[in-house]
Design brief:
The protein is mainly alpha-helical. The protein contains 7 helices and 3 strands, in the order ααβααββααα. The protein has a 3-stranded antiparallel β-sheet with strand order 1-3-2. The protein is globular and about 55 Å long.
Length: about 170
């Protein structure tokens, strides 16, 4: 996945099509979550492309705003992507002047990443898309409750909390 849209580059799209005749209430939970995630990701990708970013780039800039410098491997772990994906993401962010990679003073094998002032500004503009949530998500009645449930799901399914293979799935 590219990390930073450039002029003339189309943002990644998803090809999720939900037919009007589909009875969404009959879908298993997993299918609903997966379809909703793809639809929202496609809509967010388009909004981020307007800011010159992709989702991967936004995640990296966010994490670097929490604490920096960060080793590349730790940044990849925090963003829940492979080191190879993070390297491609950082290549583009660094090319665009949004991050800087430097050898760690204590360990020349390690690369530390910092967010530049330009990167902080780009992140602030891209992250302040609260006006986009109602447009992208429609009339979701209780967005804070949905966010809380999504946080719980991600926390539960993250590598630090492996799924118990003996527990049946609801979808």
């Amino acid at each position: 996945m590219s990390t930073h849209a450039t002029a003339g580059e189309e943002p990644p799209t998803t090809s999720v099509r939900v037919e009007a005749a589909d009875d969404l209430t009959s879908w298993p939970t997993g299918r609903l979550l997966s379809t909703a995630a793809r639809l929202v990701e496609g809509a967010w990708a388009a909004r981020l492309a307007e800011q010159g970013l992709t989702h991967a780039g936004l995640m990296a800039l966010h994490e670097l705003g929490q604490s920096q410098p960060l080793p590349v491997l730790e940044l990849a772990s925090r963003c829940q992507v492979t080191p190879q994906t993070m390297t491609r993401t950082l290549d583009r962010l660094e090319r665009d002047g949004l991050v800087r990679r430097e050898r760690a003073a204590g360990d020349r094998r390690r690369l530390d990443v910092t967010r530049t002032d330009t990167g902080a500004g780009v992140y602030a503009r891209a992250a302040d898309m609260s006006d986009a949530e109602p447009v992208l998500l429609g009339d979701v009645v209780d967005l804070p409750a949905i966010r809380a449930h999504l946080v719980a799901i991600v926390d539960h399914l993250s590598p630090s909390h492996p799924v118990d293979a003996g527990v049946p799935s609801q979808g």
